[in-house]
Design brief:
Elements: E1 2-3, E2 6-7, E3 16-20, E4 23-24, H1 29-43, E5 47-52, E6 54-55, E7 63-67, H2 75-91, E8 97-100, E9 109-112, H3 117-124, H4 132-143, H5 145-159, E10 163-166, H6 169-178, E11 188-191, H7 204-213, E12 221-226, H8 235-242, E13 249-254, H9 260-268, E14 275-279, H10 284-290, E15 293-296, H11 305-312, E16 317-320, E17 334-335, H12 341-361, E18 374-375, H13 376-390
Parallel strand pairs: 3-5, 3-8, 4-6, 5-7, 8-9, 9-10, 10-11, 11-18, 12-13, 12-15, 13-14, 15-16, 16-17
Antiparallel strand pairs: 1-2
């Protein structure tokens, strides 16, 4: 690679890298990833600018925050303003590499943490009962101005020739299905990886203390679910499955608000005393320490971090074929129809046997992460450095601006 007409090495001059995402925050999966990867690249000696609309936390060591602001307006206007302002900074920044974690106009590397929008719609609408409600949801999505803008930006991004990194094989395959000109072998897959110091199998004493803190009765088979989107992540089918399971099976839901309709469902099925909505749980490692099983029968998830964290905590895990992190689960643990309580109950009974066997041994198994996949921010930073070694500076970009919307 050259800069200003001469060859450089990291020992002579650090690379300049831009990371782009609307929020610099640790609240949200992609936000946490953005903070961590920016910090990792800075730790390796690169000059890192984090271009965002809003900064919510202090900057990590070596990370320079460039907050462009956001208007008080609708989502489409906010998206337009951020994309244009980020692009203006990119154009004059003399960057060696621009990394997009969201909807931007130009980038060298694009990390895709979710499916293309039309593919997300196709999976997620299955959470709605067929009929008028599903039809109205479909119509509202297609008429939403912000969604139309998202589709426009996605078309440009996937046609730009930038390097694409998918968060799971599932997402990679959905990208290729939505954009057939792309080849699966050209899209790199790098999974998230949980903090293995925090998420780990508990000792017997840690398990007892955690169960006491969440008021899990002795003898209960505690099923954990973590979500703020009760409908999409299969909360209703899980509650219905309790009606098919022994009375000691209980469901503990971490996250979210507005669960009144699920309280009514549990009462109607006469399992209200077995369903516990915990609200926001700040200590998720302790939550996993308290559970016996983790279940996420989601209708769509690009790569649920909660599944990876539960595996790291040594729990038997149920999830669905429409979740990217099910890649790490045995086939018998994967539900094909997240809306089928009977299928859920069969798998949960099998996982309960695994949980009881672990309890009898006095320890949970340590999950063995496969060697044939790349995981975590370190692997992503390695990929960025390999890209920098092979490619030149970001230059000669085709001018493009989104038409501003009236604020």
């Amino acid at each position: 690679m050259t800069r200003r007409g001469k060859s450089i090495t990291m020992s002579e001059e650090p690379y300049r890298i831009a990371v782009m995402l609307p929020r610099y925050s640790t609240y949200g999966g992609v936000e946490r990833f953005g903070c961590r990867v920016a910090a990792e690249l800075a730790r390796r000696g690169h000059k890192v600018d984090f271009i965002c609309a809003r900064q919510e936390i202090e900057a990590g060591p070596g990370v320079n925050i460039m907050a462009v602001g956001r208007p008080k307006a609708n989502k489409r206007v906010k998206m337009t303003v951020f994309a244009n302002r980020a692009d203006a900074l990119l154009e004059c920044g003399d960057y060696d590499c621009a990394i997009s974690l969201g909807k931007t106009l130009h980038q060298d590397i694009m990390r895709v943490g979710g499916a293309p929008l039309r593919e997300f719609w196709r999976y997620s609408e299955q959470a709605f009962q067929p009929g008028l409600r599903r039809w109205l949801k479909r119509l509202r999505r297609r008429l939403d101005p912000a969604n139309r803008l998202t589709l426009e930006i996605e078309e440009r991004q996937y046609a730009s020739g930038c390097k694409i990194v998918a968060v799971s094989h599932f997402v990679r395959d959905l990208i290729v299905r939505a954009h057939p000109h792309l080849k699966a072998e050209d899209i790199q897959v790098i999974y998230n990886k949980p903090d293995l110091q925090s998420f780990r199998p508990p000792s017997a004493e840690e398990n007892r203390e955690a169960r006491r803190s969440f008021r899990v009765p002795d003898g209960a088979m505690a099923i954990g679910l973590a979500t703020s989107n009760f409908l999409l992540k299969g909360t209703g089918p899980l509650i219905r499955s309790l009606n098919l399971l022994p009375g000691n099976f209980r469901l503990y839901v971490a996250g979210g608000r507005g669960h009144a309709q699920y309280d009514k469902l549990a009462a109607r099925l006469k399992v209200a005393d077995r369903v516990h909505f915990l609200g926001r749980v700040d200590d998720m490692p302790r939550f996993f320490q308290a559970m016996d099983i983790f279940a996420l029968p989601t209708f769509y998830d690009a790569c649920a971090n909660s599944v990876l964290e539960a595996l790291a905590a040594g729990l038997p895990v149920l999830s669905s074929a429409s979740n990217g992190s099910s890649y790490f689960l045995p086939e018998k643990n994967i539900v094909q129809d997240p809306g089928d309580p009977e299928e859920l109950s069969y798998i949960l009974l099998d996982l309960a046997n695994e949980a009881e066997a672990s309890r009898d041994r006095g320890r949970r198994p340590v999950f063995a992460w496969p060697d044939n996949v790349k995981l975590g921010v370190e692997s992503f930073a390695d990929m960025v450095e390999a890209f920098l070694a092979e490619k030149g500076r970001l230059e000669d970009r085709e001018p493009f601006k989104l038409s501003p919307d009236p604020v």
